[in-house]
Amino acid sequence: MASDDDKGMLNRADEFLQVFKKGAEFTQELMRENERLRFELLRIEEVVRDKDSGGHNLVLQKRIDELEREKAEILERIHKVEAENQDFANRYVEIETENNNLANLYIASYQLHSTLDFREVLQIITEIIINLIGAEEFALMLLDEKTNELSAVATEGVDRDALPTVKCGTGIIGGVAKTGENHFVDDMSSYELDFLSPMVCIPLKIKEHVIGVIAIYKLLIQKTRFEQVDYELFTLLAGHAATAIFSSRLYSESERKLSTIQSFIDLLTK
């Protein structure tokens, strides 16, 4: 039979065990709560991370959109600059061509005025029309002020005898000779050869006095229309050609007169 002391010790041990048991249970409960809280924290961190990631993605997407807009603006500017550069390049080619033509015309005009021989002048004009204007078939017609008619004195690509004599004021050629105004067909692609109605007809005039015309029927290079530089070349050529022809004819006539006078003097002195 246990004594009172033994019973007291057993009661205290049992109380200690109860306290220990409660402490262990409390500890386990704390551990479970800690585990739950840890998982909850991880979940919250994931949500926060996802939210931060989503916000970051929005920032990145916004920046990408801005860069795309900037890229589109830059590309548009590049296209504009390329178009401007192409315009400048085309204009440069036109100016270069115009300068070359004007330089060639200057050389040609120098050649025109370097001789007073009528036949040489006609030959030089023919070469200029071929090389500078690019004409394949044409005629140079002069006005006879006594008959008031135009007749061919030089041709290229066409039979001179096939060209009719034209009365001043009659038809395209006669009209150009009378008015002194240039003539160009509206549609060059559909033009058909007609000696009385050339593709191009340019008056040869000194100031307002017309001495003849250049009638062009076919070009070496097929054009759909004339450029501004072509009109300028025609005008300049016609002016220089008219002066050279007029001077050479006066010189030829004066030479013939001098020769006649000299022959008459020689006849008298003999």
Structure description:
- It is a single chain.
- It contains 4 helices and 6 strands; from the N terminus they run H-H-E-E-E-H-E-E-E-H.
- It has a 6-stranded antiparallel β-sheet, sandwiched between helices.
Feature tags:
270 residues, alpha+beta, Beta-Lactamase, six-stranded antiparallel beta sheet, 4 helices, rod-shaped
Low-confidence stretches: none
Helix content: 55-70%
CATH class of the domain at 113-259: Alpha Beta
CATH architecture of the domain at 113-259: 2-Layer Sandwich
Structural class from helices and strands? alpha+beta
Q: Taking Cα atoms only, what radius of gyration do you get, to the nearest Å?
A: 52 Å
Average pLDDT figure: 77
Under CATH, the homologous superfamily of the domain at 113-259 reads GAF domain
Q: Could you name the CATH topology of the domain at 113-259? A: Beta-Lactamase
Output the strand order for the largest sheet: 3-2-1-6-5-4
Blueprint (SSEs and pairs):
Blueprint (H helix, E strand, L loop, with lengths): L3 H109 L5 H16 L1 E10 L4 E8 L9 E2 L3 H9 L3 E2 L15 E7 L2 E11 L8 H42 L1
Structure described in brief:
The protein is α+β, with helices and mostly antiparallel strands and 270 residues long.
